[in-house]
């Protein structure tokens, strides 16, 4: 069989290497190769989607409730042992299920969009494009790895290009931002590595073989105390990546310093790896701990949601405002997951996709404004809609999507996630839902302060406007973000196709939890 | 029964899409063809549905629930697998029944008239196409709101009308005041959406569905509601949350502040959205959710009290306002209070009846005011008006009809619906409602008197006496962007009284049609005071919603009203209305001499009880202060400082190892190194 998953993961890596081999002068070729590789990868993902739908949706009635792995699409050709010695193995295995399918699709789409949006980059274009493709490989690997060892490799792999992209192509304080980013994430990664190693060890105690394959490790029932510390170690890594308040301090700096397409990639795709880690690994591997900590983490999530909304109200830097907004919205994603019911978890996954689309669109549009004006300070703008009506329209669409306007994409995920948490805890549900008010306030403030008000009379932007150098949205720019805008409307119109794809996987994931919790005390190791 | 609701919905949407995409390039006749065509055909289709419903018997057959597509299924396949699973199934469906048919008639009918009128009013505006695109979008959203067959799509319509309102209030987006008003309207409306969302969560949690009515596709909430089902406390909470949404949308206390500011939008918008249709969505929702409210007496009482308080409160503010549109805005808030009072007294059909008559005469008042403003080139201050009845004859006569209607003078439309409401309050009081309903009745009567007074204060000040202004302003409405220095000079040259001309026919014809409706629109009301209690076409048409088993399992019982008591109520309200007009005539018939009173009570009312200032000081400023403080203290100091601290520690620990690395990405490489070292050590140990 054709190793479709491996192709999807490694094609961008290969493409990146090809780009690096090209001479730096042939910028057109570099752009062309990079975009073609990303598009080709998207095409493969589309093929995967068809295959997945055919295999799994057709058999959905027999899959649901069968076992955790039953909704996964895996191939024997994509599962082999890297290191084997005695009863010690380190393996390679990839697999896709309904949840990762959607996130893979999101990542490959965002890569295409962000690479297209980066055509204006002039400095060291070759390296930039190569790192973007490498970043895609890393993120896709994280979503598709079904072996913890492999997962860790990809987890670290995506950090290198992210670090370099922020540190080399960012704004004035890029070095500081990149350094902070790496510091935070590597602290988390180290603890996660320790937890992964320990997990294999416990598996060996139970079964006699050392394996880090997810489906093997899942069979090992850990006692609650062990679960707790392993959970905490892994959760910290994921919590920093999401990020959870109070581990979010790296984010506003990184998002505001990185070039817009990179921020779109980080906020749109990479931030989902943290939330995905919780759902894919923490939940089925440490069900008792997950259950035990879900209340505490829900409370943290709600605090984060409201706290970051409050901060966003007063930001004057557009990208910082969107950064805090992003943390606040991801809080809803996490909250839905901790609801541990179908609506909550589906809302959570749906919202990961929607947040990716909307946040990427917002950052890209703000990037367009910033690149024209040379500033992202809200106070220097005003009344732009007269001059740049198309830019105003696309910004309004993205803003409305982000504030959760019913009928657009974000509402669908937020609605399900909040409905889920409301069934668990009315207080948390009410508090989290209350964020719609400040969210509307700060997001509409962003739109209104840039686009409306009296025509600018003085200042740098006014001069640009008078000289006609502040151009409206160009056709190429529109084509770049058009897929995101289309999805904003389509998913808002009918989210059902997405929930239908993920539903068997979500149900089976939750069932693992239920199954394990019912058997508390029967088959624990230690 | 012919059901064309989907076309009523789709046509305005199509109009919006066409105008939104191509409007900029189209000539005005093409824009009007699309906009008028979409809203006119929508009205036609709504009319066909309405007429065919009239011919359908029995009552229970007057319902059509079409499911169009599945919006989302969540947890529907998990039944039997997960123990705590409650399947969620939401379809997009359209419900046509007497209530939604009535609302559709009002929305598309008044909407169409205002579309016609706008062609004249907005003629010189550079945003002509944009205006009609938004207007069509609004009609679409409002149709969705009233014909959704479940709470989720109600929320969708609810939010989209809010968006349309936001876009139209901020239509002249280069004006700071318009932008501020639009933002305020949006944020307060989102508070309402928040209430509605919570209500939806609670409904799903307690009833397991979001559909209104039981159909082939599943159970409906209203058929599941029973007096001894879900705990009364929970139902009360649901109803109060729904009412938060109603209060925000229908500008009731304490969420009314956005509506007066919303007058920053073009006047046809004020007429359509902020008087006739959108702001009545709350009245519609309470009527629609009547089974829930029926189960919770506490919620009904709250609705009645808030309605009464708002009616009186807003009427007092209207007494002192000087801006012609603001008087009408407060009047709208006050009249909406009446509708909620009726619903609180379980006279839902009375509330909806007043909704329809109010749509005629209040739209007429706003369009009349718009005609005055148009003739004066954008002047809205009553101190600059007077004597206009000689120059604006059609506007004057139609405005007078509307003023008589809103004052409740027999036989104008407002009389029938207002009398219905005031009578039902007294009936509820006599029927065991106690002191509360006597008080509410008194408030309703008092407000009726105040209403007549402030309306005729307006009529006399604008149309009687002598002209106090200096002639029409040129192009004052329109985007300030276009107002160059030449036009500024143009302003100075004002033509005086004889430069004021009546508006064109495209504007006056809708005025006349609405005036006719304001005269005869109430005749479908109750003839109980004439000894014919069963003659009430309107209530009879709507009654299935409140009593038929297909719509509700907790039927509404109307309190009986004896003829004698009815006469007392009607007599009192008529007497007070006449008194109000009389006082206004005595005071203002010769024209308006404005002197600002130093009286503290007057000052308090003039400044709208300082509520806006209070909100800014108590809610908004502290929140912003908190945000700024957290940004500088927590984010800048503590967290950033903390991460620098971690950085120092890490550097200390890694001091030795770091020297192994040279170059740019040393810290990162360190992390990887650590990882690999750990792996290798572990690998070695395990093998050994």
Strand order of the largest sheet of chain B: 1-2
Number of strands of chain B: 2
- Count of helical regions of chain B: 26
What is the typical, i.e. mean, pLDDT of chain A? 89
Uncertain runs of chain A: 520-526
Task: Using the alpha-carbon principal axes, give the shape of chain A.
Answer: globular
Quaternary structure type: heterodimer
Helical/strand content category of chain B? mainly alpha
Strand content range of chain B: under 5%
Main-sheet strand order of chain A equals: 1-2
Report the helical percentage of chain A.
Answer: over 70%
Tell me the span between the first and last alpha carbons of chain A: 41 Å
Low-confidence stretches of chain B: 475-492, 659-663
Residues in helices of chain B, as a percent range: 55-70%
Q: What is the general shape of chain B?
A: globular
Gyration radius of chain B, rounded: 29 Å
Write up what this structure looks like.
- The complex is a heterodimer of chains A (526) and B (688).
- By secondary structure, chain A is mainly alpha-helical.
- Helices cover 74% and strands 4% of the residues of chain A.
- Chain A contains 22 helices and two strands.
- Chain A has helices at residues 4-21, 27-58, 60-63, 98-117, 125-144, 148-157, 159-169, 174-207, 214-217, 224-241, 250-257, 260-285, 287-314, 318-338, 342-373, 389-402, 409-424, 426-433, 436-451, 460-466, 475-493, 496-518, and strands at 73-85, 88-96.
- In chain A, a hairpin with a 2-residue loop joins strand 1 (73-85) and strand 2.
- Chain A is globular, with a radius of gyration of 22 Å.
- Mean pLDDT of chain A is 89; it is low at 520-526.
- With 688 residues, chain B is mostly helical.
- Chain B is 67% helix and 3% strand.
- Chain B has helices at 5-22, 28-54, 98-121, 128-147, 151-169, 176-207, 221-224, 232-249, 258-261, 267-276, 281-288, 290-295, 297-318, 324-344, 348-375, 393-407, 413-433, 435-463, 485-492, 505-520, 537-547, 563-588, 600-606, 611-653, 655-658, 666-687; strands at residues 64-74, 88-96.
- A two-stranded antiparallel sheet of chain B has the order 1-2.
- In chain B, helix 3 (98-121) runs antiparallel to helix 10 and helix 3 (98-121) packs antiparallel against helix 20.
- Residues 475-492 and 659-663 of chain B have low confidence and may be disordered.
- Classes of the chains: A mainly alpha (526), B mainly alpha (688).
